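Hey, I'm writing a tutorial for new members on how sequence and structure tokens pair up, and I'd like a real worked example in the thread rather than a made-up one. If someone can provide the structure for the chain below, I'll link this post from the tutorial.
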Amino acid sequence: MRIDLPGFGPYELREPVSWPAVDRPASSRIVYAAAHVVADPLGDNTPGSPAAVDWDATLRFRRHLWSLGLRVADAMDTAQRNMGLDWAATRELIRRSAAEARSYGDPATLVSCGAGTDHAPDAADLNTITAAYAEQIETVQSAGAGVIVMASRQLARVAAGLKDYHQVYGKLFGLAERPVILHWLGEMFDPNLAGYWGSHDVAAATESFLELIHANAAMVDGVKVSLLDEEHEIGLRAALPEGVKLYTGDDFNYPSLIKSGSHALLGIFDAIAPAAAAALQALDAAEAGDERAPARYDEIFAPTVPLSRKIFERPTYNYKTGIVFLAWLNGHQDAFAMVNGAQSARSLVHLAEVFRLADQAGLLADQELAVRRMKALLAVNGL
């Protein structure tokens, strides 16, 4: 099967890949896929408008992830928090996602949701920021999901130094019913978070972060780090208290980081879920003594890395467009549409390269459908 791709020319698709069925979650690592939301193509999802969500398709995609043995990290940056998913839609997403998880098991195990302060954009003092966090934590806990404490743009703006971060987060630990995941989102994902943890120097910020974790280790399940710095993550992982997990958020270096001991909470796993599930089964086998399994792990993940690096290329925060594009190509949703009109955030040439790399990784589930949809997109753009 062949298609002409802008920026590449005639492209012959590879032989299709049939990924093995997964009958259980991975045992060697805890793995979350940060899931996107599906926009209602008939809703007013123009920039600045409240999010109109296709709830049926959104929940269907979460069932797809659970069926592959992956946990779901919901209401996070992959779901366009701070980039179009307003609090009303976020609150509904948390409620619906946790309720849907009950069909598969314990929502607190299967889905963890982001709690932040984005519904209080004008918060100007630490007490108001803490109250905003508290409201969202209560929303997540009352739904039955696990809590991921997201980095706050408002706290980044207001905090005068590391003591302010420790003051706010210290109060949040007292509100949590069970250990939470802390999220350190780098400024490449959100420039408004520059200097988080009280310093623009990563080493100083890391020291502050670790001080907070060590002081509250009993209430920290793990930390999700999205700095795209493999060496830093390995060092941070080694410095964590016993029992506190490192969930890699490194969409560039995830194969080696998971292999060396990190757990995972990744946006790219939304797009590469079948391959990720297969690789994790190989990792289980490797850690059980199968000498051939490490090579299978590497072979599965290797072609996904160029795809991930393309999707997450600068400006990194526009990665959601590639994630949704692949969901559309693979039939998980009927339209290439996003809340806040974000489908326009990447060029046609970029998307064509994502198509090619997804095929190379064996991640076009139905090649005929994917080609038909890609040709339709090209035709709309005059090609």
